[in-house]
Write the structure tokens for this entry.
Amino acid sequence: MSGYIIAGLTSIYVLLFLFFIVGLAKTRRYKGVKATPSVSVVVPMRNEEQYALRTLQALAAQDYVGEWEVICVDDRSTDSTKEILEKFAAEHPRFRVLSLAQNLPTIASPKKRALESAFKIAKNEVLLTIDADCIPKKSWITAMAGRFVGNISIVQGPKQNNGSRSMAHLFQKLETLGYTAMEAAGFSLGNPLVASAACLAYKKELFFKAGGFGDLVNLSSGDDDMLIHKMMKIPNVDVCYNLDKDAVIETEPVNSWKALFNQRARWSSNGTNYESKAYVLLLTLIYTFYVWMFISPWLVAFLEIPWQWCVFSILSKVAVDFTFLSMAAYKLHTKRRMLAFIPTELIQIPMIVFAVPAGITGLFRWK
């Protein structure tokens, strides 16, 4: 690999993160009059008996003054999730349970099927999605729905990992901060590259105008960013990122490195399936850059590759990552998470290098 190619890959990475830094700098908290559209909160659940009741109670405590409902989708659970949902809904009129049949055919993305099934029976104007292991604040619906002013049709909210001080949890906390900041940057620039269905809202009319999930059900993930890319093709769709402190939801980290690798592989599984070939090329070049960083110390040690090539790439990555994450930690009031920066940088490189091919070749599992 020549020095020119290495310089090119490094430059692409740096320029991408400069884009994120500019976008993040433009992210502002909204101080205008908040809207109160009718809202349907949709929670897909499969074997979530550990978290279901906690999430339901947090949703039931919402203080939203507009019209709202919660649709809980039992996606063929084999534990007590269905019973928990039905008992809770019987005591809370705003809650409905949609149970999918156990004999439904196997598809690549059952979560999308669960979501779209709920969207079809949703009564309200705005669809607001949350994962079963997430905890919303009391004014979460108020904060998310309030941003649907003017032509705003898609609102992304922030998430953060809770958890312990174990290295696996600290890694996820900082990495989640990074992904959240990337979402904020793209949405703030009107060009969302990534998104998260754990705290995402969009108008029901827009979802069906874009054709729903459509062919995306044949892909193992993509209920967030791929859907947003699809919706952005509709004319006059404005988006925003919601930095309101009440919009932040907490999500559970996985508890082992094996589970973390499986999750990252699943997230990577559709990297070559984006409709935009330019975006696929960008992801491929970024992955190639990670591969170079992983192998370059070994090439320097055993093949006499100039050490300057290795140091130039790694220091460039560390510099832009630190700048970006520090800004994100400041914006989201999570400065202490930067204490895990160095170990996270070291772990992230092999994690991505091995998780991406595992994801593309299907070496991961759903629940």
The chain has a mean pLDDT of 94. The two ends are 41 Å apart (CA to CA).
